[in-house]
Amino acid sequence: MKESRARTAPPHGGVVPALPPEQGAVVREVIVRLQQQPGALLPILHAVQDAVGYVPDGAVGPIAHALNLSRAEVHGVLSFYHWFRREPPGRHVLHLCRAEACQALGATALEEHARRALGTDFHGTSADGAVTLEPVYCLGNCACGPSLLLDGELHARVTPQRFDALIAEARKA
Ligand code: FES
């Protein structure tokens, strides 16, 4: 599910915003719960994103401190794995499978349709803030592609028409 992606400096230009209290509490709880695990960095980053929706810049310092890493090392991991979001997502998150088996079943055309329909590329959010479009590389549903996850729910054999219906339902929710 992960792919390397070159990303450079954090968007804040060196000024790290403080975490809002509720996010700070989540980050502290995650750190306390997971920091003793071997290789704790990735589980912590995943848990923060699951809880907050993304990994805020303000979480990097506390995570680095807890794991005795530099901020640059944590930023490096965040930059390497495109799975991690650095900005809040839209109200719904759509992961579209771009792996080979789904491509053979029409995922490339579905990608183009998705970009057009949402008015955004991968890693972006539709202008109304409703849907964030993310790529994913195999959902384990290869025989029934094209596959996508909408808010964690798997959908198979998705046609452009089915895509539009799913997005319309999501926008109404
Ligand atoms: S290639 Fe898309 S689910 Fe496996």
List the helices and strands and how they pair.
Elements lengths: L20 H14 L6 H12 L4 H10 L4 H10 L11 E6 L2 H5 L2 H12 L5 E2 L5 E6 L11 E3 L2 E3 L4 H13 L1
Helix pairs in contact: 1-2, 1-3, 3-4
Q: What structural category arises from helix and sheet content? A: alpha+beta
Reported by name, the CATH topology of the largest domain is: Arc Repressor Mutant, subunit A
Strand order of the largest sheet: 2-3-1-4-5
Alpha-carbon distance between the termini?
27 Å
What's the CATH first level of the largest domain? Mainly Alpha
What CATH architecture label of the largest domain applies?
A: Orthogonal Bundle
User: What is the overall pLDDT average?
Assistant: 91
Q: Judging from the principal axes of the Cα atoms, what is the shape?
A: elongated
Query: Strand count, sense and closure of the main sheet?
Result: 5 strands, mixed
SSE sequence, one letter per element: HHHHEHHEEEEH
Strand composition percent: 5-15%
DSSP helix fraction: 40-55%
- The low-confidence runs, each spanning 5 or more residues with pLDDT under 50, are 1-13
Describe what this molecule looks like in 3D.
The protein has 173 residues and is α+β, with helices and mostly antiparallel strands. It folds into two domains: 86 residues, Arc Repressor Mutant, subunit A; 81 residues, Glutaredoxin (3-Layer(aba) Sandwich), CATH 3.40.30. The chain is 44% helix and 12% strand. The protein is built from seven helices and five strands. The chain has a five-stranded mixed β-sheet. Helix 1 packs antiparallel against helix 2 and helix 1 runs parallel beside helix 3. The radius of gyration is 17 Å and the shape is elongated. It binds FE2/S2 (inorganic) cluster. The site of FE2/S2 (inorganic) cluster (FES) has 11 residues, from helix 5.
